[in-house]
Amino acid sequence: MNLLGALRRFKKATLCDAAAEKVAASPEIFSPVTLVVPALEQIHAERGRRPTAPDSSVLHLWSRSVEFLLQRSETPPEPPSNWRLDVKLSCSCPDCRELQAFALDPVERVHRFRVKKERRQHLHNAIDKHRLDMTHLTERVGSPQTLVCSKDRRTFDRRMKQYGHEIAAMRALVGLAPKSAAAAALSARMMAAVKLAAEERSTSK
């Protein structure tokens, strides 16, 4: 979807404001990071050369995007404190009960299941179905062979990647800030978040 083009179709400010509200109210559909911020950058770049969306709509999209990003990423995500995976498996067979106990264990990181192929496949399916943060590889030694399950940090790593994108979006929004006391206050919070992210990166190296 071309957000900029969509907003321009509305000739009246009230309709454009309504469209902007719909966009701002659905960040899961209209991502502030990948859609709204780039559109605001395009609007900002084209101002003065051709008609753009009414200022009230642009301001609304800017402020709602800022609020969304600050709520999610004003401070860095907290890394997991242990290896516990909070999950309730849908199957209660003995193998899944053992897998459940392993998932909930805050200390154990690797668990081995020496079981027949069909039982290993069942465990494969359970891990994939519940999207558990662990790998599952078959150690092809002995009979029966062994399924080796190793916990990882994929959910946290994915969140950290999102955090990086959201910090970059906040940096862009600071450059697009309207001239008002409220916008200045929000920009100051975003700059503090950007600085904190940079400090986190430097300490983690």
Provide keyphrases for this structure.
single chain, 205 residues, mainly alpha, 8 helices, 8% strand
What can you tell me about this protein's structure?
It is a single chain. By secondary structure, the protein is mainly alpha-helical. The chain is elongated. It has 8 helices and 3 strands; from the N terminus they run αααααβαββαα. About 2% of the residues have low confidence. A 3-stranded antiparallel β-sheet has the order 1-3-2, covered by helices on one side. 21% of the residues are buried. Helix 3 packs antiparallel against helix 4.
Can you give me a brief rundown of this structure?
This protein is mainly α and 205 residues long.
The shape is elongated
Q: Roughly how many Å is the radius of gyration?
A: 24 Å
**Overall number of strands:** 3
| Category by helix and strand content | mainly alpha
Order of helices and strands: HHHHHEHEEHH
User: Spans of 5+ residues with little confidence (pLDDT < 50)?
Assistant: 50-54
Averaged pLDDT, please? 88
Identify the strand order in the major beta sheet: 1-3-2
Largest sheet: 3 strands, antiparallel
Query: What is the helix content?
Result: 55-70%
Q: What percentage of the residues does DSSP assign to strands (E)?
A: 5-15%
- Roughly how many Å apart are the termini? 38 Å
Outline the secondary-structure elements.
Blueprint lengths: L2 H6 L4 H12 L7 H15 L8 H19 L20 H11 L5 E5 L2 H13 L4 E6 L6 E6 L2 H22 L5 H24 L1
Antiparallel strand pairs: 1-3, 2-3
Helix pairs in contact: 2-4, 3-4, 3-7, 4-7, 4-8, 7-8
